[in-house]
Amino acid sequence: MASLLTAGLLGLLLVLVLLLLASRFGRARQPGEPPLDKGFIPWLGHALEFGRDAAKFMTDMRKKHGDIYTVQAAGKFVTVLLDPHSYEAVLWESRSKLDFGQYARILMDRMFEVKLPDYDPNAEKVMMRMTLQNKNLPTLTKAMFFNLRTILLSDPDRASQQWKEEGLFHLSYSTMFRAGFLTLYGNEGKDYEDSRNQAKDLAFSLEIYTEFYKLDRLLMKAARSILSAAEKKEINSLRKHLWKLLSVKRLDCRANRSVWLDSYKQHLVDLGVDENMQTRAMLLQLWSTQSNAGPAVFWLLLFLLKYPSAMAAVQGEMEGIFRSRRQKIGQMHGISQEILDCTPIFDSALNEMLRLTAAPFITREVLQDMCLRLADGREYSLRKGDRLCLFPFISPQMDPEIYEEPEKFRYDRFLNSDGTEKTDFYKGGKSLKYYSMPWGAGINVCIGKFLAVNSIKQCVFLLLSYFDLELKDPKAAIPAFDKERYGFGMLQPEKDVIIRYKLKAQ
Ligand code: HEM
């Protein structure tokens, strides 16, 4: 027995020594390359710290190495760039050197089991831009208004004059997700105000949301390929259920389908994608289009509830707009773009909330050995096969040199004293082009941004106009972030915040 134990220990020691040697004599930093930090565990490198809390890890590494460095994570070498003056050089670099499609393809497969032949993200973006912006925007905004009213006001459980307690995250996410889903994927019947259609829309959107929410809890682990066997089983069964609910046959029968939905389906047909894969792509798009706006409404409402001066300013602006036009939101059949565009206080509060809680990575695969020239003239060699990653959440968004007390919510941070939008922010004495990047930038910019802003505004206006909302425990601290979500868009709270709400006497 003792000799078996000794042999086992010796074996383990040998493996450790071999791994340490491999790490020591593996890749070494070459002249002209960014500082290299491989971590102590060969191959795995810093993968665990990266996945656990990317913001902390990348900030710690910046303190050690400066604003550009390369780390090893799960066999991949990732160069992190945190100088916002130099982001431009990456955002617009040619696709033959820095490619953004390859990593997107890996994630599509890992998270949604979607594989598209000849997938060209550029062609897809052109199609999406045409259908989510410009002349389609007013129709989508109006549909969102009606669908928000259905979700918030036609559900007797919610629209009641009795105080009700609910998690604010749950209320915000489910409302925006369900209304956003109905807006893009259509309704049960054509007439938004028919109560039978509304009841069916409430039921179906709730079923989709309930399943999607469970899937959403597992997606970050799926993206990092770290699901346990039990979680793999669970994600497979959730995806299968959602594919049934979202089958293209079923979607084809829905009323008020958006131009976006029909064009996306046609785009897949043109690519030669079979029906099964089309349905999978529909679930992927549900995540792309509906996973950010709900959390955004949550954070915005939470900050407004925690900061009464911000709430008073936003509510005062909203009431002033409707009063001056002698309009009541309850009697409106949509809020015009002209009204949605004249809310500088709301816009500043929204931008401030996004600065604090939007944390997407901007990622590129390095397709050939190349030189990266930073804004201050420094030049670095990047190696073919590595990955380049920008993390605007750390800099510019949380950079104390750019924003005084960056961790604090100041609703008027993006307002000039004359009430216009403040756009001048500085680092190192130089004006910044990219001072906050919640929507991504360049090729990675969010295609649904204008619809998202209109939708968030309409949801908050409806909630503040129709409901009394208050925190159950006004003294409770703002919850911490769920740290595994860094890199994937809007952050989510570690735990929900309970609020009380009831319909106002109108
Ligand atoms: C607060 C809300 C939102 C935020 C912060 C946000 C943020 C982003 C970001 C950062 C990206 C770039 C991802 C990348 O290329 O790496 C993106 C892409 C995208 N967003 Fe949004 N988004 C929001 C809401 C929406 C909404 C409501 C829609 C649609 C109705 C939408 C549609 C899209 C689409 C279609 C893409 C392109 C995805 C792709 O290239 O595959 N987004 N969004």
UniProtKB/TrEMBL annotation:
State the family it belongs to.
Belongs to the cytochrome P450 family.
Which Pfam family is one of this chain's hits?
p450
Q: Which GO terms describe its biological process?
A: prostaglandin biosynthetic process
Recorded GO cellular component terms are: endoplasmic reticulum membrane
Annotated membrane topology is:
Single-pass membrane protein
Assigned keywords, A-Z = Endoplasmic reticulum, Fatty acid biosynthesis, Fatty acid metabolism, Heme, Iron, Isomerase, Lipid biosynthesis, Lipid metabolism, Lyase, Membrane, Metal-binding, Prostaglandin biosynthesis, Prostaglandin metabolism, Signal, Transmembrane, Transmembrane helix
Binding-site positions, substrate: R110, L116, N292, R387
Q: Which InterPro entries match?
A: Cyt_P450, Cyt_P450_CYP7A1-type, Cyt_P450_E_grp-IV, Cyt_P450_sf
Q: Which annotated residues bind heme?
A: C446
EC number per UniProt: 4.2.1.152, 5.3.99.4
Q: Which cofactor does it need?
A: heme
Please write the reaction equations for the catalytic activity of this protein.
Answer: prostaglandin H2 = prostaglandin I2; a hydroperoxyeicosatetraenoate = an oxoeicosatetraenoate + H2O
A molecular function annotated in GO for this UniProt entry is: hydroperoxy icosatetraenoate dehydratase activity
Q: Where in the cell is it found?
A: Endoplasmic reticulum membrane
Functional description taken from the UniProt entry: Catalyzes the biosynthesis and metabolism of eicosanoids. Catalyzes the isomerization of prostaglandin H2 to prostacyclin (= prostaglandin I2), a potent mediator of vasodilation and inhibitor of platelet aggregation. Additionally, displays dehydratase activity, toward hydroperoxyeicosatetraenoates (HPETEs), especially toward (15S)-hydroperoxy-(5Z,8Z,11Z,13E)-eicosatetraenoate (15(S)-HPETE).
Q: What is this protein called?
A: Prostacyclin synthase
| Signal peptide residues on this chain, from the entry's feature table | 1-28
